[in-house]
Here is the input.
Amino acid sequence: FPPGPQSQALFERAHAVFPDGTTRITVERDPFPRYIARAKGAYLTDADGKRFLDLNLNFTTLIHGHAFEPIIAAVESQIRNGTCFANPTEAEVELASLLCARVPRLERIRFVNTGTEAVMFAVKAARAFTGRSRIAKIEGAYHGAYDWVEVAQASVPQNWGPPDSPAATPYYRGMPASVLDDVMVLRFNDAARARELLSRHASNIAAVVIDPMPSRAGLIAPEPEFVTALQKTAREHGILIISDEVLNFRQASHGAAARYGIQPDLFALGKIIGGGFPIGAVGGLADVMKVFDGSAGRPLVPQGGTFSANPISMVAGHAAMKALDEITFARLERLGNALRNRLEDAIARANAPFSVTGAASLFRIHPKPRPPREFREAHWNAAEAKVMTEMTRSFAGHGILLPVGAAACLATTMGEVEVDAVAGALEAFLDQNAELVEE
Ligand code: PMP
Here is the structure.
């Protein structure tokens, strides 16, 4: 089930206007991208009229699936009243109030347009608050396109550096050396080394940026000792903790940090809180968020944005978040557990060298016999990458779009039927590829 002739024709036209035929690197192509015509709920229809279960949901954004009725209603009525103003609206107060009421330590918030911006302003806020410029981040973790958090994001094994001293590798040619100097790289779940490195360099470190379950680095849960080490060392040395929950906020109504015992000073949010429209948010303790306070003149960190807090994203986000009550989160949690169990059972029955990670409504299948503990263990060699491409093709053959090398997710509009379909697709793949999976 490769993409069909309509997708191919669109891709050919796209080559005349985009550098490689696409307008974002993250678009999957095998051999070219599948263009989408329309979508509803958990399913989308491509330009050639084929229907698929969508486990990508725009990189985990659409927690209610596509074209969710309460979001359509909210957006339709807002569009008739205007789409963006230079003045504030009630809608922004509503969404901010809902989020701050739910999430511990999220006392003040500022809306922006993307997760990238949310992380960028969180880093700037930490620098302004501490008067320090350097940050620490996790090897292999993705935090968007702000230079400092791009360091050591997708390095190849020959550039990793020794296990106890991961290298600050550049992400693009020409990345300033000064950026690399201002980033310390930690390995996920290596508590002892994190404590040591952070303490040694504490005097110039503003913040540790941590995604509680970094998706591209394996979608692996933080071990309690690692959380304690980060938390304690940061507190001792006046280093702030930034919880990047752009993706993992969908794990619980009180957010991912609270779920894993992390006490952030600052948060970066995005994706689900916009209900499928562009959004990001930087938030945190009132004391720290004062760096954005412009009431007495120029603040320490000026922050604006033409489309920041535009009422379309605000009303869509509010409709999405309102529909996500505790009962809905609990249902998603059960559905995710059921799916991960089914996948693990299929793998065990086939005695195949695969494993599953994730939590709540998120999961990843790894071509590894044991679940990886961090980025280096999760990294694929060429043979493993080939197996995963085969798996994605096989899933597409069963009418399911499974993201490659990133988090797959469930939506509130999914249920037993979808869990059965995904588990069935993995069983079929393992059945048909005994030679691929033999150890
Ligand atoms: N941080 C994390 C953890 C993310 O997953 C993402 C996006 N996948 C970002 C930041 C960047 O968000 P955006 O694509 O909205 O800029």
Remarks:
- The longest strand covers residues 205-210.
- The two ends are 28 Å apart (CA to CA).
- Residues 59, 114-116, 119, 142-144, 211, 215, 244, 246-247, 270, 280 surround 4'-deoxy-4'-aminopyridoxal-5'-phosphate (CB under 6 Å).
- The chain has two domains: 5-67+326-437, 69-322.
